[in-house]
Structure formats: structure tokens, C-alpha cells
Amino acid sequence: MSSALSPCPNCHSKNVFKSKEVSAGGGHAPDYLPGLGKFFAAEKFHVVLCKDCGLARFFARPQATAKLGESSKWTRV
User: What share of the chain is helix, strand, coil (3-state, %, to 5)?
Assistant: First the structure.
């Protein structure tokens, strides 16, 4: 994943930072990765943020993307 992180695709800066894993939903928050987590546990992703332009990108874990083909909550575009 690191080659996809830097440079920033918006401003080409190398001042890019990655968060620890963040829950993709739960509680009163929307589920940003529906159908890809476990029954009582939302899936997780990393947030990548460019310090210079503020572009924020979300990267799902490989465990989540592996479930895309069998999930009825996602449609190929």
C-alpha cells in the first residue's frame, strides 16, 4: 500500500501521513464499509492525509477488499 500513498495525487507533495487503523462505522456512525466486517464489528481502514493540501483518502484493509465479490451490498462499476 505504501507506493499508493505518496506522493499526493492532488498536489504531488511528499508530506503525506497515514493513520493507525480506524473503525469504518459503529454506534451511531454510518458504516462506511457495509457488509465487509463481521456481524458485530465494523471493518477498519487507514486514513491517508496530505499535510500540504488536506486531501484525505481512505484505504480498506485486504481482509475487506477480499469480501467485495461476494457481498450483496457492493456493485461493480
Answer: 15, 25, 60
Q: What is the pLDDT of residues 31-76, one digit of tens each?
A: 899 999 988 889 999 999 999 999 999 999 999 999 999 999 999 9
Q: What pTM, to 2 d.p., does this model score? A: 0.80
Q: Does residue 77 sit within a domain?
A: no
Helices of type H across 1-77? 62-65
Domain range for 52: 2-70
